[in-house]
Design a protein that fits this description.
Largest sheet: none
Structural class: mainly alpha
Number of strands: 0
Strand content: under 5%
Number of helices: 19
Helix content: over 70%
Distance between the termini: 42 Å
Order of helices and strands: HHHHHHHHHHHHHHHHHHH
Length: 471
């Protein structure tokens, strides 16, 4: 694409300056639809996993890769996507990501083997990584008033949260009526609408041509996360002492050390100076834990509902409504609450509700009416918890980092969140495999999630919104 003209530069500067008018609501809709599509893909796939397994003859470990192939590349590339947003402009990178996501989704629907589907899911993660930090960077650039930004982020989270509500139900209906391939085709029209709205109403963010791309750090991050994920997933079928499993963990450790060393250099994709901001450091850990809990619970309970309780894909999707419906409307309230009192209290409430939601289900993993009721109650608490925690963390991070590093900060938070999702599916899948997919394995998995979410509550309660540490 050609460089901007001076007039375009002036327009961008005016649009990002305070007091120049309120952005069009259609801009927020267009940006939200992009990430809506990313989340929709995750939740739709969750309820379709048993059908995919039957159609493509996939094992438990291959199903973990169908889920994690997407989130792994998504998590590993979010930091680079944030840097690309700063270097080339959020709007440009966002539109490229949208187009790629639409095309790869169409190819995913034609996958003829489990290996091909995993490959397409991996590529989808790359495209999806371009959408999240860029949409947040455009929002931060467009809504300069902190209170208005908090409300906009609440609206963004509400629209994207609808994906959690719609995904399991739509996925269940499409899987049982049309077939699992249809779950990927729904991305295409959503992407097209988002492209039209964003192209029309978004102004390009300020570009920093000098912003470098940390290829060494990016490669080390991918290798570290891939090695860790492989070791965790393959530990069930191969055993923890398998040479390939131990080798994968060794590769992950070495790559992790290399990543830390590389990020100490000038021009790193994750400047170490950001970790002196206490809210930033605590927010990354909290983001990892919240998605460990959410994605882990979705994966574990989807298999439990369909393989142990015998639910169809449609019924399983409906069973998740108590979890997903609050995420469709409560983030608006959360955004207003954060604008008034700050992110710390709402984030603590969110983690405590999430922990209560999973722990209350631990004793009730049978098919009795009481167990079904307690599942609904637990999922409702989990859903409200998610809708309090995630918008609060996003607002805290965006507000804590310097404005010129918004893309990096938002990318780091969401990289941590998606890393948590990868670890949740990998670790809890290993737990389920160890227990042979029984109700006991589900109960143990939920207990692990609950304990880690309590750790998250302590983390945000003691650190979010606190002053930076003195180095």
């Amino acid at each position: 694409m050609s460089t901007q003209t001076p007039r375009a530069h002036a327009s961008t500067a005016l649009d990002s300056a305070p007091g120049t008018g309120r952005p069009s609501p259609l801009l927020l809709l267009g940006l939200s639809l992009g990430y809506f599509m990313v989340l929709l893909d995750t939740t739709i796939v969750t309820v379709a996993l048993p059908s995919i397994s039957a159609s493509l003859h996939g094992s438990l470990s291959s199903l973990q890769w169908v889920s994690n192939g997407y989130t792994l590349t998504f998590a590993a590339l979010l930091l680079t996507a944030g840097a690309l947003s700063d270097k080339f402009g959020g709007k440009r990178v966002f539109l490229v990501g949208l187009g790629a996501f639409a095309v790869i989704s169409g190819v995913s629907a034609a996958a003829g083997s489990i290996g091909m589907l995993i490959t397409m899911r991996t590529l989808l993660g790359i495209a999806g990584a371009a959408l999240l930090p860029t949409s947040l960077a455009i929002i931060a650039n467009s809504y300069t008033d902190p209170a208005a930004r908090a409300k906009a982020l609440g609206g963004w989270a509400a629209i994207t949260g609808m994906a959690l509500a719609a995904g399991p139900v739509i996925g269940g209906v499409l899987t049982d009526t049309v077939g699992w391939r249809a779950i990927f085709l729904v991305n295409v029209p959503v992407a097209l609408v988002s492209i039209v709205l964003t192209a029309k109403f978004a102004k390009e963010t300020v570009r920093r041509a000098s912003r470098g791309i940390d290829l060494g750090g990016q490669l080390a991050a991918i290798v570290a996360l891939a090695g860790l994920t492989y070791g965790l997933i393959q530990s069930a079928p191969l055993g923890w002492t398998s040479p390939s499993v131990l080798g994968a963990f060794a590769v992950a450790v070495v790559a992790g050390i290399v990543f830390v060393l590389l990020e100490r250099r000038d021009g790193a994709m994750l400047p170490v100076g950001l970790f002196r901001i206490r809210t930033f450091s605590a927010g990354l850990l909290a983001g990892l834990l919240v998605n460990f809990g959410l994605s882990g619970a979705l994966f574990v309970l989807s298999l439990f509902f369909q393989e142990t309780r015998g639910y169809s894909a449609i019924i399983a999707g409906v069973a998740f409504l108590p979890l997903t419906l609050p995420t469709a409307f409560n983030p608006i309230f959360t955004g207003r609450l954060v604008a008034k009192i700050g992110p710390r209290v709402p984030s603590v409430i969110g983690f405590l509700l999430m922990a209560a939601g999973v722990l209350i289900q631990v004793p009730f993993t049978s098919n009795s009416p009481v167990s079904v009721v307690m599942s609904c109650v637990g999922l409702l608490l989990l859903g409200f918890g998610v809708s309090f925690a995630i918008p609060s963390l996003i607002t805290a991070i965006v507000g804590a980092v310097p404005k010129e590093q918004t893309g990096i900060g938002s990318g780091a938070l969401n990289s941590a969140r998606q890393t948590g999702a990868v670890l949740g599916v990998a670790i809890l899948g290993a737990v389920i495999g160890a227990y042979g997919g029984s109700a006991t394995g589900t109960a143990v998995s939920l207990a692990i999630i609950g304990v880690l979410l309590l750790v998250g509550a302590i983390t945000v309660g003691t650190s979010i919104g606190r002053p930076a540490k003195v180095s």
